[in-house]
């Protein structure tokens, strides 16, 4: 399998796809899932409510955003892999964070939820065959393939791990 080409996704997803270099679903999962899980598992509780600047998300909000977004990307991949022709709406990540009440949750509960979700995502992605990976759909008014969604989902998690390290000093 090759990497998704630029005609398989909207340009604004390029940042996430560029987080990876692998050419197969198996390799992308093998090379990145443990790192992503370790990144989240190693967040110290005393940093959970830290935001690196005014009006920026706290670490708990970043983690909740990662959870919500992964669920959305996986739902899109599931729908399109099953040949659904129904366009899927976009979402406003800031509204999702505001309405998630992440601040009311413990860091441990967010870490546990993320780990379970990430493992389930990997299992699902590993079940997709070539035909399913090449299925197309419309999400957020943009054409996208299932293969691109796999790369985007993992790249999104890697992107936020990088932000947690660089801006939140984890």
Please summarize what this structure is.
This protein is mainly alpha-helical and 170 residues long.
Written description of the protein model:
The protein is mainly alpha-helical and 170 residues long. It is 56% helix and 5% strand. The protein has 7 helices and 2 strands; from the N terminus they run ααααααββα. The chain has helices spanning 14-17, 25-41, 59-81, 93-98, 107-127, 130-133, 146-166; strands spanning 136-139, 142-145. It has a two-stranded antiparallel sheet. A hairpin with a 2-residue loop joins β1 (136-139) and β2. It is globular and about 45 Å long. The mean pLDDT is 97.
Biggest sheet record: 2 strands, antiparallel
Q: How many alpha or pi helices?
A: 7
Head-to-tail CA distance between termini: 34 Å
Mean of all residue-level pLDDT scores: 97
| Large-scale geometry | globular
Strand residue percentage: under 5%
Radius of gyration: 16 Å
The tally of beta strands, per DSSP, is 2
Topology pattern, helix = H, strand = E: HHHHHHEEH
Secondary-structure class:
mainly alpha
Task: Give me the secondary-structure topology.
Elements: H1 14-17, H2 25-41, H3 59-81, H4 93-98, H5 107-127, H6 130-133, E1 136-139, E2 142-145, H7 146-166
Helix pairs in contact: 2-5, 2-7, 3-5, 3-7
